[in-house]
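TA notes, week 10

Several of you asked for a full example with nothing omitted. So below is the full record: structure tokens for the whole chain, then the designed sequence directly under it. When grading your own attempts, check the secondary structure regions first.
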């Protein structure tokens, strides 16, 4: 496996160069960091948008109870009594009022267009002379 060997050698060489450069190059100075708010700059962001005023709900006021209205049942007239008609008579009357649906005509299916393959002419053949191979670059 030449690819694995390549990565082993090149990776090993790069790792060795990294360690050697760490020994000879000067180290960067270490800065003590403090994350106190006093040292951070004050960031103030102003926007051009004017948002609507805040809505405040006052919950100290008691809720308003709607006034009592007259009962709707007392005002509404009672339904007229339906004559005592048997269920068969009511069904017969319902069917008498129905209109029969119009019979549907079967639709003729449209004929599919037949596709006929075209005769394709092959492009003219071009003959090219092969270049001579030279040296040890004859692998392709």
């Amino acid at each position: 496996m030449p690819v694995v060997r390549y990565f082993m050698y090149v990776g090993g060489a790069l790792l060795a160069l990294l360690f050697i450069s760490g020994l000879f190059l000067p180290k960067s100075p270490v800065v003590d960091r403090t994350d106190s708010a006093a040292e951070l700059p004050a960031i103030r962001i102003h926007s051009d948008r004017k948002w609507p005023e805040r809505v405040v709900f006052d919950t100290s006021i008691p809720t308003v109870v709607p006034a009592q209205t007259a009962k709707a049942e007392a005002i509404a007239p009672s339904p007229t009594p339906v004559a005592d008609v048997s269920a068969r008579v009511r069904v017969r009357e319902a069917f008498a009022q129905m209109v029969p649906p119009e019979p549907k005509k079967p639709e003729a299916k449209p004929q599919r267009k037949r596709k006929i393959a075209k005769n394709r002419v092959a492009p003219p053949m071009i003959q090219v002379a092969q270049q001579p191979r030279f040296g040890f670059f004859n692998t392709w």
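DSSP finds three helices and no strands in the chain. Use that as a sanity check on your answer.
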